[in-house]
Write a structure and sequence with these properties.
322 residues; alpha+beta; 2 domains; 6-stranded mixed beta sheet; 5-stranded mixed beta sheet
């Protein structure tokens, strides 16, 4: 359990913000709706101030919570974070034990921040955040420190930008089964041939390891060499995808990461599989003694996924459709 005093941050609520919130509240037909809109508005404005203070750009005008119809019909307090997505800003009044999160905001959010207001609404405490929710109430004891929010947003922005830059290069695994392969992905005989004389020992060793791991004669393997410029010295790695049909509409997939220029992988390097919305669902991380990483899963024809190889703040992204 977290000590809330250790992870929270208190901020003043400006007279201007209180004026905006009161103006919107006066437009509501009931006292309950007025209270909801007032607190939602203040939560969005306070968190917007905090993010801007921390150098993170937001777009208040793009938030749905300013729409009069949304204010009347829904309990929404969203803040658009530029280049990333919508952050939900939930309020907690003094004396409340848990923060209510309505089901209509359980999706299409990059995270949920909880703000507690004093009774006079002149000060607010940012209690913390969670990246996702699946229940209607959040206990403050389960929140991550608010200081981690900016790092989480910047990580999402990096992933979004990398996916955007690589969005045109999509490898089709179904086409691989038909013998069609996009540029950059090669058959292993070509990828690991003896022409790379300085790495001949490693490529032969990798080829032998892959042959020993052959499970099905129908397996197809393609690979790609890439260099990690953010290691010193630079590391040459091989990313290898092994696929085989599983029934009529599924494909078994095994992803492997091997070092080429070194005996072992860089320590803490990660091989991550993400869905087409950028959410992680499988991850492997190398230790100092690991000479390869493997991840296995299966998917249905037409599904998309993303592979990310990352170390520290740098990443390589590859996009796939099954």
């Amino acid at each position: 359990m977290n000590n809330i005093a250790d992870i929270s941050l208190s901020l003043p609520v400006s007279l201007k913000h209180r004026g905006v919130a009161n103006s919107l509240a006066l437009q509501q037909p009931t006292l309950q709706a007025a209270t909801r809109v007032r607190l939602n508005t203040l939560a969005v404005l306070v968190i917007c101030d905090y993010l801007n203070m921390m150098g993170i750009s937001t777009n208040l005008e793009a938030s749905d919570c300013w729409n009069p119809i949304v204010q009347l019909c829904a309990n929404i307090a969203d803040l658009e974070v530029e280049g990333v997505g919508k952050l939900e800003c939930r309020s907690l009044q003094a004396g409340d034990r848990n923060c209510y999160v309505p089901p209509e905001v359980w999706e299409d959010r990059i995270g949920y921040v909880v703000v507690q207001f004093e009774t006079n609404l002149r000060s607010a405490t940012l209690l913390g955040f969670v990246p996702q929710v699946s229940t209607e109430f959040i206990s403050p004891d389960h929140l991550e420190p608010i200081e981690n929010l900016c790092g989480a947003i910047n990580s999402l922005r990096t992933t979004t930008q990398m996916v955007s830059r690589n969005s045109k290069a999509v490898a089709s695994l179904s086409n691989w089964l038909k013998g069609v392969c996009v540029s950059g992905w090669q058959e292993l005989e070509t990828l690991l041939d003896d022409k790379q004389s300085q790495y001949a020992y490693r490529t032969k060793e990798i080829s032998r390891s892959l042959r020993n791991n052959l499970v099905d004669s129908k397996e197809i393997r393609r690979g790609k060499l890439f260099e990690l410029s953010f290691t010193n010295p630079k590391s040459l790695l091989a990313l290898i995808a092994t696929i085989s049909p599983k029934g009529q509409n599924e494909i078994d997939i095994r992803l492997s990461l091997y070092p080429i220029s070194e005996t072992f992988l860089p320590e803490l390097i990660e091989l991550v599989v993400l869905d087409d919305e950028g959410n992680e669902f499988l991850k492997g991380q190398a230790r100092s003694i690991d000479n390869y990483l493997n991840i296995q899963f299966s998917g249905k024809i037409g599904e998309r996924f993303i592979i990310r190889v990352s170390l520290d703040d740098s990443s390589l992204i590859e996009n796939f459709i099954i």
